[in-house]
């Protein structure tokens, strides 16, 4: 079974669970604007003409596409009924909906999750104009709960891909650490990392200008700005945030190194302490992570370890889901802050993959941040790769 | 000047011309859903938090982005004012709009052009909810005319990139023709082409499974289905549709070969005639192409050559625009059919790049199609590469 056949079957189970009669992914020219649900319902290719990919609670799988694209859709082995049209989609789409006679029609619009928000405003207008005068125009609902579950509950094949991306990331990190020297710039280190990603024939997990992020010492801006000309200096931390995309699935891992001063054999006690606090915060979150808990509860657990040790709290969520993209949506291990919407209230589920990434600033040294990726099972959370146990020490 | 600096300046001129006070590209997590306007306003990277990229008729260039992303936006050298926010974008966005006090606010929603339709329905709802109670909620208009002009009017730097992609495509075609042999499958030929694209370090102009399209003989389905196991046979046509993406700009070229039967020195007269009809249709369209004409007039010119020679008319548009994607939107050299909306009525402009691609079916031989790419200038249309002048002949 291909991954998209597997996910389409899973989607129908989710429609039953969520009691949604019909889910329509309504798209056109996906090379121009691509609904993220296409990855699960169609694969990497594109559709040209207005197209409706429809799954129903009763198990129907219907695709309505331009005549020239019926064959490529049939080859997917996902849709039991592939309807081609010539002049326009409206008539056949409305007729098909009439036959299904759904009480709810889920469409891809969502305030909370960009990955459930692939329907453009103009396509929404077109769909509602087609349905005008029928009872169905009033039955549109957001597919967010369906997509959150579909993206969030990884199949064994998806977990395996993520595990492989994480293993590759660990290999690349080993080579990066061997490359670190006093005087090298953040940009030089990033360029070296890009060479390794290329050698593996892979892509980075997020935009390459910021992947890896490399933060050398306390002056380096942490956040969404790329590596700079700052150089690696003795007595400072070098912090990384990095991941690869392998077989369409991502890793997202932070690692930390300390550059020894001449004569130093280990990091100063305050650096070692900061590292241990973050280690403990991660392990506390992992141990607390269980299906059925709201993400904010896990966030609070990790956050309390950092603030309890007297550090200022980090200004972002403890962790996010990971999958086809580094920042996958749905339940978030985040604080109940306005900018996170409802996602910290959503419940952790078995099959979810989360990052755990608390951090703290150590004045004079730099940023202390680690990030591990974990899989939620019925029995709790498992690390998907070996977590960083010790500070990486770089000789001056 | 970078390409996006050049295009932002051009966009302000277009706002003046179209008499639109403010254009807002309102996006979030563009790694998930990417507004195609981002290519021109930001470049290849992504923005994470809700962000507004704003250009005004009076020349202001304002970006409102999440605090962590101000630096990366400042580095673009496009926006004279970069505003970072922490909690939420709504307040600062509304205040900024109030100060501009625009009579029209163009947003990226369009029924006709997917490349002007990057605003999702949920983002549209958010924007209108922010503006509720102000006079501005009623002033939203479609940015389609702005985006059509911005994408359609190529700068010299953009034309140069397209020209280079076309030159590379010609090189790759030469190698493909040398590779063609009786008995090879469409899939083998496509795989060979992919190897060449890879060697050049490029991508294909559209999804790789259908680029090149290879049609061996009359049984091969022409359209949006990929190459098959059909083999190249003597006495048949082999038709290609292929392009590369080089420096983010595309080529889109069709070529035609005939496989000689044992003893044949040239193609049969009916094949040669079909080829000449298509050649003439292309040249008639090119000669007719001038700024200020509606696309449908050019379509009618080429179409009449094919039907005038007694062939059935082709069921698609004679040509489309070409740029960052193979099918760029805006004015279309198309017939006034419902499925093309208003795009055949739109006017050809200087700086546009169009494909010209009429076709006809030759029963028993296969599909006769050629596609050339042309640049519109004040003095008419120029081929951007050498057009195919003779049938490529393959020895049996």
Task: Outline the secondary-structure elements.
The structure is a homodimer of 396-residue chains.
Chain A: H1 3-18, E1 22-27, H2 38-41, E2 51-56, E3 61-66, H3 70-74, E4 81-85, H4 90-100, E5 105-107, H5 121-131, E6 140-142, H6 144-152, H7 156-179, H8 186-199, E7 203-204, E8 213-216, E9 237-242, E10 244-246, E11 249-250, E12 253-259, H9 269-288, H10 295-308, E13 319-321, E14 328-333, E15 353-356, E16 359-362, E17 366-369, E18 372-377, E19 380-383, E20 392-394
Parallel strand pairs in A: 1-5, 3-4, 5-6, 12-20
Antiparallel strand pairs in A: 1-2, 2-3, 7-10, 8-9, 9-12, 10-11, 13-14, 15-18, 16-17, 18-19
Helix pairs in contact in A: 1-6, 7-8, 9-10
Protein architecture, described:
2 copies of one chain form a homodimer. With 396 residues, the first copy, chain A, is α+β, with helices and mostly antiparallel strands. Chain A is 32% helix and 22% strand. Chain A contains 10 helices and 20 strands. The longest helix of chain A has 24 residues, at 156-179. The radius of gyration of chain A is 23 Å and the shape is elongated. At the A-B interface, helix 5 of A face helix 5 of B.
